[in-house]
Task: structure prediction
Amino acid sequence: MKETNTRISNNALVLLAIYGIIGCRGNQPSEKSLPSRWIRIEVAEGQDASNALLTLRDFKEIKATVPMVQLAVPELQVVSEVSSDNKIRQQIVSKTLADAKQLLADARTELVDGQFFNATDVAAGQPEIVISQPLAKDLFPNQSAVGNTVSINDQEFRIIGVLGKPNVALHGVVLADIYMDLGPQPEPAADPSSPNSNSSDQPATVRLDRIWIKVDDLSQVDPTIEILRKLLSSNHPSCEYTLRSELSTTANSTD
Result:
């Protein structure tokens, strides 16, 4: 009888320990509730396309003039024809910069093979891309995709990395099929017919789908959104923008 009571007591202790662990885990914040220092800027929906502008010049001005910006990432998504070994696919290509690696990492998206392109490789003119894991398995089912080449709109690119699926969709990041460098983007020339013209007064030649901003501190999210709203309204008075952040307590759209 004493031995039976001892076994019961031991089992009870084990159960209490398990419940304690579960309870502790239950009190931990989930990844979905982790705070974000990222702000996403997009043109608001339902606008005339001719007036809907978010440009590379906006990106450069934000990066140069907004003091709280730790990181700025432009993004332009296009649908392109991708071919490899007689396989042709229509895939979403995200044209961005090397700093997008940090955005993807903060969104819990990790490289499962290879590496992300960097500024040094881009400066050397190397045509490199990073692709999603589903596309890698589709195009190269029996081998590593890294080191292989694909043709995108008749231009050859070498695959240097493969991105896995995100563990949690944070910051509204939606994975593209392919990531590549935005590339050198020439600024528009000044209008020679205008004596006071300046290239900075001209509309930028490159439109973006969104700009991602990471601030230094969580307390800077709302103040930064206000600064961004005023800057964009000044640059494009007829255009409305949506500024989103998981921490924002301010209105989302520009006035």
